[in-house]
User: Fold these one by one.
Assistant:
Number 1:
Amino acid sequence: MSETVELTAVRKKELNKLADFVSGMFSKGNVTLLQEITAFEELNVYVDHYEDCFDGMLVFDEEQFHIHLNIDRRNNWNTNRGRYSLSHELGHYYINEHRIGLQTGLLEPHTSFAEADKNDLIELEADYFAGCLLMPYQKIYYFDGVKKFSLDKIKTISASFQVSLLAAAIRYCEVCPHELMIVVSENNKVKWYERNEHFPKWPFRFKVHGSLPPTTVAGEYFTKANSRFETIETVKPDDWFYPFTGDYRANREMNEQCFYSDGFGYVISLLWFK
Ligand SMILES: [Zn+2]
């Protein structure tokens, strides 16, 4: 199994601070104003056709920075995907080590994909920065605090901050005060997961790139006919995990709610406790 790279808590804090500083200057309501940021920094942005080569790319050339956004992969100023890709490239620009690396040639200009390599530290940093820039902690943490958690909350965040559902789910998972885990799957295989610090560290009944556990909502969707459920479903912790013996949480009921991304073919499972 390949080793997974993770950002340290200290590094996350630094990136968060940097992103907060930028979004604090350029936002209206919950929306971070990316066009204002690129104008202020005098960055050249090109929205153009680059086929399937990348989502976004930052290049340093003739003493200037240039950001390319690929409209062939639905990246534009006002699409959720484009806003995310642009924020990711702004991460490469604002994070000192990345920008100086590009300016000095120590860091090769690279293409970035929205479904980034989860083992590339540079990409993880830019992704984390993008999430913070588009959804500042103070705004998302207090977002609609009264309402009980469900997929609806993620949908509301997605609309309010103008980000994709997946970006909203990842950022909310990181900052929310309750146990939450996200599992993204495709063709009955687990692609990746995010588990927040509150969620029990139980071993999984799945492996990344392996099959989904069969008795989960997502697992049944892929393996059983007429099993597409969009409502909140009750599952048991041991449908997904091997709970530690004697852990009081093992007897609690869990919720699983799925979002089916028909365009991209993946399923997001949100897992939380009742
Ligand atoms: Zn990148």
Number 2:
Amino acid sequence: MTSAIDTDVLIVGAGPTGLMLANQLARRGIRSMIIDRHPGPARETRALGVQARTMEIYAHLGIIDAALSLGRKALAANFWAQGKHAARIPLGDIGREESPYPFLLILGQDDNERLLGDNLRMLGRDVEWSTELIGLAQDGDGATATLRRPDGTVRVVRASWIGGCDGSRSAVRELTGIGFEGAPYEHVFFVADVTADGPMVPSASERSIPWPDPAAMQGQRASAGRPVGAGVIDDAWGPSSGRTTGDG
Ligand SMILES: Cc1cc2nc3c(=O)[nH]c(=O)nc-3n(C[C@H](O)[C@H](O)[C@H](O)COP(=O)(O)OP(=O)(O)OC[C@H]3O[C@@H](n4cnc5c(N)ncnc54)[C@H](O)[C@@H]3O)c2cc1C
């Protein structure tokens, strides 16, 4: 016999997916609990581009004004290769007449997560940090999750549903045998939060940072005045080359 249900939905993972699910459930008054094994929110930029549909959903959540004031509209992407400006792709009018937000907003993933986390707290919920899912069993009435808490003790939670929002190496997927079809991208990508000197395209929303060979480079500027570099590492510097590219 199974014990009583503690929560309707246990959300595993407080990245953008888990935080969005927690916000949507809270708005609808559905009981949920959200955990993450990390001690707190991520501080690196990671993903940069917020699409129109996300901004429409942010408007429903009431966080669009904060997102727009923190981020920058992308007017163009500038690509650099071997120290030279190789291409400029205009982005300024994508989605015109399709959305109230017909543009790509450059806003780092850390800022997106912060906005979603703040809104969740406003709705009366919060993430339980340093709490890791280590066991999961399903039955006809729901699921039993085993969690390791910050002090190392174990807690068992009964939930009607589990929201597996725990990223690419998902414990939820592994513990339930769901599997993961597909394969990683062949290229090695990088994103770097950097402070850099050098010539830049002179526009507030259209900045590029030169990057040493051999990386093909797209420079962008994220929120809060922090320059961000992103690009693809040349094949000659890929993982099989034996050449060092650093941690980024
Ligand atoms: C360097 C970098 C650059 C990127 N650039 C881009 C980009 O430009 N554009 C783009 O679209 N995407 C980009 N991505 C991918 C983007 O970051 C992911 O798509 C996004 O983070 C996925 O969100 P998520 O919430 O599904 O998962 P995640 O952000 O991975 O969050 C999963 C969370 O689950 C938690 N977790 C995992 N296992 C457990 C467990 N057992 N118990 C409790 N918690 C657990 C983790 O701590 C984590 O906080 C980039 C990623 C990286 C690393």
Number 3:
Amino acid sequence: MATPSEQVEYESSVNLQSFLVFLVSMTVGLLVAVLLLPAWLPNMAFSLGGDAPKAYWYLSRATAFVALSLLWLSMALGLSITNKMARLWPGAPAAFAIHEYVSLLGLAFTIFHAIVILGDHYINFTLLQLLIPFSTTAYRPFWVGMGQIGFYAWAIIATTFYIRPVIGQKSWRFLHYGSFGMYLLGIFHGIFSGTDTPTVWAQNYYWYSAGSLIFLLMYRILVSTIEKFFPQNKKPTPPPAPRPTQG
Ligand code: HEM
């Protein structure tokens, strides 16, 4: 979500190979933890086994909020780059790097959030239902479908960081603006398919999450409108004075 000039300034800081290795290892690591932890923690074996294990459902719900929070952080940093707030802290290049990292981290948490629900006997999804949007007939297919579309959109937007030279800056920017739609899909999916929505903390969470992004977006629109109507004549910075030579 950085402006075109700033997007040119800050190149992707995670290469494609690291991105794929990161996604796979994060997902495998989380799944292995779920499988191996019961060996050390017998009570967890009870939660993960039996006829109606609840742990998968709890894990899916917990990682859902982690994923949405990371998406929020990535969006907030992206908007802070374009509305110039990031110049105050942590600096635009750092904000851009964190923006990219947290987006990838959030994607990995979303994969886990979706896969781990396969263990829940109440929701009872199949792998195919997980992959095909709107096919989860046993549980809120429309709103779960919104989450599935949101996930695919997220995966596409994250991948475009790596194919920017191929698709060109214009298409890249166009796709990157899709982040707003992706966030809306994620938050509406959470609100309308989540068990925690009726609780006060979840409702506060959703309000603060969306409200703070709307504030940053409005501020961004204000900054770009001011810049458009009252352009500042930026004088080129003079080159540093030559170092005095010892004579
Ligand atoms: C393949 C994609 C996805 C699938 C199959 C999926 C599935 C689900 C299901 C079944 C629930 C209901 C769980 C429950 O509370 O009983 C849920 C809730 C939720 N999901 Fe997703 N989801 C997906 C993608 C996403 C994405 C992209 C986000 C946002 C980053 C997200 C965030 C949430 C949140 C915040 C909740 C609410 C959890 C709660 O209230 O406890 N999900 N998801």
Number 4:
Amino acid sequence: MSKENWQLLQKCSQETEGLDIILACDGAASVGQVGHEVAVKLTRENAEARMCCLAAVGANSKPHVAIAEKSRKLIIINGCQNNCASKIVRDKNIIPSYEITIAKEGVDKVPTLDFDAEDVDRLAKKISAEVSKLPARN
Ligand code: SF4
């Protein structure tokens, strides 16, 4: 896609209080990649949802920790039962609004970066429906 057609996102550092922030583990296995694609899909299709940098939260980047803390709803997507994304956030005493583990949702953890687009569509719909029923955190 040429740069002229790039979809520009909201600046999460400035608009986080009005946004549902999505942090995905992005693990290097099928389940991590499904989680990443779900996060991308939710971001692209919902102007009030925005993927943000989990690695920066883990690295104690102050702006990114603040984004997680101040988000309207905080959505955590883990690939497998190690639940790395949840642990990173909870270790900072930040309570997510919603957590999901892709490996518990009918997707096998396989050592591949390939995934089934139907799993991405199905889980994006599920998360969207469930998060829409939750109250804002702040
Ligand atoms: S939760 Fe699982 S898939 Fe995600 S980063 Fe951790 S070990 Fe990898």
